[in-house]
């Protein structure tokens, strides 16, 4: 049985698909979006998170830490000794059976509300074998959704899609160079998989993060609107950037330095979509 | 909201009316020296009313505002023991009018035994005083040119009201006079039931729904005046709960358009009074729960949900007739009581579960070779503690209150004052505080001592006695044990046993007058006050730290989320422990920001009802909570903020992000 590391299970996720959903966040992501707000979701390594608030500076955690050059690496002992419980592993290992048992406990509530389970991340497809096992186990138990960047091989995508009921699909940038620049990878696979998604007939929603000066340009939104129109997609959800995105970096020992201007207001340009009869919802 | 209402809200908030109040103390010691306790109470009531000068507020149609901070008094008077926290028989008084009630009492006085003469005479005296005061108010209204109030007072309280305005004025008069009778914490009971006929009368006579909404808003505004004069444990705790919905005596749903109108009024006004309660059950339409969720969004913490499917059978088990159980409402906070028929004291005191655990662990842990042995000692401890709280109940002696007796069924009929068990029900109720802390403590002991042997009993006892000083790691280990609120069978099962012990102990203790003892899940102020005296507990809680409020997870528990929480707190058969006390859950205000979020929160409420929860209070987390979380991160480990499709524990965010979020909440309400 496959194992995977989960960095969060959010009960009562209200924005990850229809109804009340439990969202499982899997660790590991092949993209490095500049605006990533879940830095602990990027690495497949199990980092230790240290909360900055309530720290009395007693130094116990540091005494138990290792140093790699200048960088500090907290240890399991650091977690144990902090009198204020400010450290924790951000990931927990699960087998697909354990995970499904755990999240399945609330299936009654989820189903009654027309909701279900959503797998998110990181990029859930980066652990597709584990994901596939989970989806199969959940079949006929509850609605199964994935929230994905769409970045994976087409065979993998098709296989996962066959066991998925609902897809939240991210389209960030239509221009390939810009995509490489801001996320670290080409968008070729993503656009290919989008076609597959449309053809599959599965229920899905397209989501675009509105990053000021990056994804919210007239050019990019025009491109996205055209792509949607070509594929007879008539609805999109826009997620305006807000400057909370960097909130968790420090606690995982990372720094947040986006190249775009965080202070700018994201521009939804609703008219671009409306011209093409695409309904917009700003989340 | 109409302009008129906006203006009235401004008047209320300006607090200008407070400057009209004056201090007066009228000493009537000599007048009451040779009088009976009943007569003393009646005379004091009359003197209190005599001290009051009618206040007519500009543009106000409701009337009855206090003009005196203190009224009359006599040597030896003790307002602490004046009956309170019960729901008067508004319906009876409204349908009869005070003149008729008075003539019935006079008839009784003329035909009764000598024994009861004093009671009826006293009651009569209070009714005369009340009517005389109303007349004085009427004349003042006339003089001040307050036309509508004057007209209403020409009808009520002497005669039964016909219009909704007259009913509102009458109701305000009843509450005002009861307050002058020193009866504190007088809830509204089933407002939408006894007021509905007048609403429908007015609709039939061509008055529009909008006008009637405005009138109810005016009434709600008026009950926010003088709230400061009747504080309970703290400001705002003045007992003005108001119940909506539910069923009639046959069990038919009676939620009406008027009930909805009351919710609309409360939603528009966003005032702390009246505190809206809603009776719900499996069949409550989701649309109603959605509307209620919009109210929750305001951040006032209501409506509080009360589940008929659990409360009614629970009350029947306690000996209430099915008809009466179906008529339940809530006392000042959450205690389920029967309007008009109950002189129950549902908040005698609290049984503190953690106190019992702490004591038992300290004295018995060493001799227990198995966890079951320890649990048996705990159960014994609960049983013994029940004897103590019952003794407290018996030590409660009420002062005579003939004026209040008018409003409690059974008193006039039997010629007995409420203070002398004249009412139909005279039961006692106890809060059960800190259930989660207690269950968590036992679960931790089971794990680290009996199941895994990680620590010795000596180590644990030493750590507890030193308040974990020097035992950080041990404490962290305790904190990571299973906690109630995460749907874990082991610890929830322990909570089951504790609650059973509480219920079973009280079940056997019915007294010779047929009075019952009701176990509950509330905490009132005890989650702080009782916790202050409880030493460190084995769940990792330090000495003096508070417990969760009412029936809620402990503050030390890191929660999986609201679904698991609901599951944990609906597992027990709540019909067995039904004095009242809600599961309290906090949901960040951002969840409520659009229709979709509102729908989902409503579905969460529905899940709670369907799973058999008894009472639920949802809070939309507001700025104050966040501010407190800045200063006390340790108290808010579960506070989740969700922004831009992601969530995080608030306390783990960097300060500047926390501050940013707080800033944003300024615009949320
Ligand atoms: S052990 Fe905890 S309180 Fe002490 S320095 Fe480390 S994080 Fe801060």
Descriptive terms for the model:
heterodimer, A: 283 residues, alpha/beta, TIM Barrel, nine-stranded mixed beta sheet, two-stranded antiparallel sheet, 10 helices, B: 669 residues, Anaerobic Ribonucleotide-triphosphate Reductase Large Chain, five-stranded mixed beta sheet, three-stranded parallel beta sheet, 28 helices, 14 strands, globular, binds iron/sulfur cluster
What does it look like?
- The complex is a heterodimer of chains A (283) and B (669).
- Chain A has one domain (3-46, 91-282): TIM Barrel (Alpha-Beta Barrel).
- Chain A has ten helices and 13 strands.
- Chain A has helices spanning 60-63, 76-81, 96-104, 107-112, 128-138, 154-162, 176-183, 188-200, 218-230, 270-275, and strands spanning 3-13, 21-26, 48-50, 66-68, 71-73, 87-89, 92-95, 116-121, 143-148, 166-170, 203-210, 235-240, 279-282.
- The two termini of chain A are 37 Å apart.
- Chain B folds into two domains: 3-280, no CATH class; 345-667, Anaerobic Ribonucleotide-triphosphate Reductase Large Chain (Alpha-Beta Barrel).
- Helix content of chain B is 48%, strand content 9%.
- In chain B, helix 5 (98-111) packs antiparallel against helix 6 (114-143).
- The model of chain B has no long low-confidence stretch (mean pLDDT 91).
- Classes of the chains: A alpha/beta (283), B alpha/beta (669).
- The interface between A and B is large, with 47 and 47 residues.
- The complex binds iron/sulfur cluster.
- Iron/sulfur cluster (SF4) is lined by residues 50, 55-61, 82-84, 86 of chain A.
């Amino acid at each position: 049985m496959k194992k995977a590391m989960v960095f969060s299970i959010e009960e009562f996720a209200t924005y990850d698909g229809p109804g009340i959903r439990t969202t499982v966040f899997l660790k590991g992501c092949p993209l490095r979006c500049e605006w990533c707000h879940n830095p602990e979701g990027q690495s497949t390594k199990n980092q230790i998170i240290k909360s900055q608030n309530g720290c009395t500076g007693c130094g116990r955690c540091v005494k138990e830490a290792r140093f790699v050059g200048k960088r500090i690496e907290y240890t399991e002992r650091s977690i144990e000794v902090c009198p204020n419980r400010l450290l924790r592993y951000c990931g927990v290992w699960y087998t697909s059976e354990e995970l499904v048992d755990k999240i399945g406990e609330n299936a009654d509530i989820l189903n009654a509300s027309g909701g279900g389970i959503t797998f998110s991340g990181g990029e859930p497809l980066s652990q597709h074998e584990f994901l596939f096992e989970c989806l199969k186990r959940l079949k006929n138990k509850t609605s199964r959704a994935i929230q994905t960047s769409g970045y994976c091989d087409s065979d993998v995508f098709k296989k996962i899609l066959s066991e998925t009921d609902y897809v939240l699909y991210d389209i960030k940038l239509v221009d390939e160079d810009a995509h490489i620049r801001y996320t670290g990878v080409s968008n070729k696979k993503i656009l290919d998989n989008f076609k597959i998604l449309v053809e599959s007939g599965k229920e899905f929603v397209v989501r675009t993060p509105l990053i000021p000066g990056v994804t919210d340009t007239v050019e990019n939104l025009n491109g996205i609107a055209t792509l949607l129109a070509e594929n007879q997609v008539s609805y999109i959800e826009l997620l305006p950037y807000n400057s909370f995105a960097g909130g968790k970096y420090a606690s995982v020992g990372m720094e947040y330095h986006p190249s775009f201007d965080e202070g700018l207001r994201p521009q939804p340009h609703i008219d671009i979509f409306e011209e093409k009869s695409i309904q917009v919802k700003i989340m | 909201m109409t302009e008129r209402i906006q203006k009235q809200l401004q008047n209320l908030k300006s607090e200008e009316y407070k400057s009209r109040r004056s201090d007066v103390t009228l000493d009537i010691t000599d007048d009451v020296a040779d009088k009976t306790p009943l007569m003393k109470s009646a005379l004091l009531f009359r003197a209190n009313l005599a001290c009051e000068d009618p206040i007519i507020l500009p543009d106000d149609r409701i009337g009855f505002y206090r003009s005196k901070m203190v009224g009359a008094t006599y040597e030896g008077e003790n307002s602490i023991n004046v009956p309170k926290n019960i729901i008067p028989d508004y319906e009876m008084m409204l349908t009869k009018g005070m003149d008729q009630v008075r003539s019935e009492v006079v008839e009784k006085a003329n035909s009764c035994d000598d024994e009861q003469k004093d009671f009826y005479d006293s009651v009569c005296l209070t009714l005369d005083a009340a009517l005389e005061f109303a007349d004085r108010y009427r004349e003042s209204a006339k003089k001040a040119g307050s036309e509508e109030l004057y007209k209403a007072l020409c009808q009520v309280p002497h005669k039964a009201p016909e219009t909704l305005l007259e009913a509102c004025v009458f109701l305000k008069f009843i509450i005002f006079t009861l307050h002058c009778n020193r009866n504190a914490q007088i809830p509204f009971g089933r407002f939408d039931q006894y007021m509905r006929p007048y609403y429908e009368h007015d609709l039939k006579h061509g008055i529009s729904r909008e006008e009637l909404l405005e009138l109810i808003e005016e009434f709600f505004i008026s009950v926010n005046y003088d709230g400061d004069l009747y504080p309970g444990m703290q400001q705002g705790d003045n007992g003005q709960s108001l119940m909506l919905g539910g069923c009639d005596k046959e069990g038919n749903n009676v939620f009406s358009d008027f009930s909805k109108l009351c919710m609309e009024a409360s939603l528009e006004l966003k005032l702390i009074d009246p505190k809206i309660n809603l009776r719900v059950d499996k069949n409550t339409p989701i649309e109603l729960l959605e509307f209620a969720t919009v109210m929750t969004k305001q951040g006032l913490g209501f409506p509080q949900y009360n589940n008929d499917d659990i409360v009614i059978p629970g009350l029947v088990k306690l000996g209430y007739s099915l008809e009466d159980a179906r008529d339940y409402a809530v006392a000042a906070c959450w205690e389920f009581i029967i309007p008009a028929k109950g002189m129950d004291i549902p908040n005698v005191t609290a049984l503190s579960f953690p106190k019992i655990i702490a004591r038992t662990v300290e004295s018995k842990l060493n001799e227990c070779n198995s966890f079951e042995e320890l649990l048996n000692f705990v159960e014994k401890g609960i049983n013994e503690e029940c004897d103590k709280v019952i003794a407290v109940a018996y030590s409660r002696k009420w002062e005579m209150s003939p004026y209040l007796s008018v409003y409690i069924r059974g008193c006039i009929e039997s010629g007995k004052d409420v203070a002398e068990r004249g009412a139909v029900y005279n039961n006692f109720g106890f809060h059960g505080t800190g259930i989660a802390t207690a269950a968590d403590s036992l679960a931790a002991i089971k794990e680290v001592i009996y199941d895994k042997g990680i620590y010795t009993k000596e180590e644990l006892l030493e750590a507890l006695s030193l308040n974990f000083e020097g035992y950080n790691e041990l404490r962290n280990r305790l904190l990571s044990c299973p906690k109630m609120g995460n749907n874990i069978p082991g610890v929830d099962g322990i909570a089951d046993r504790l609650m059973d012990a509480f219920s079973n102990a009280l079940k056997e203790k019915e007294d010779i007058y047929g009075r019952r003892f009701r176990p509950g899940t509330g905490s009132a102020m005890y989650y702080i006050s009782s916790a202050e005296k409880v030493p460190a507990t084995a769940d990792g809680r330090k000495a003096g730290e508070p417990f969760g409020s009412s029936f809620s997870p402990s503050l030390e528990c890191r929660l999986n989320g609201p679904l698991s929480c609901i599951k944990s707190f609906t597992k027990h058969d709540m019909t067995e422990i039904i004095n009242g006390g809600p599961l309290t859950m906090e949901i960040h205000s951002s969840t409520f920001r659009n229709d979709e979020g509102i729908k989902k929160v409503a579905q969460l409420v529905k899940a709670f009802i369907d799973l058999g929860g008894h009472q639920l209070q949802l809070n939309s987390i507001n700025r104050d909570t966040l501010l407190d979380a800045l200063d006390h991160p340790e108290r808010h480990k579960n506070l989740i903020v969700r922004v831009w499709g992601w969530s995080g524990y608030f306390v783990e965010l960097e300060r500047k992000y926390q501050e940013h979020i707080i800033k944003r909440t300024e615009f949320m309400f």
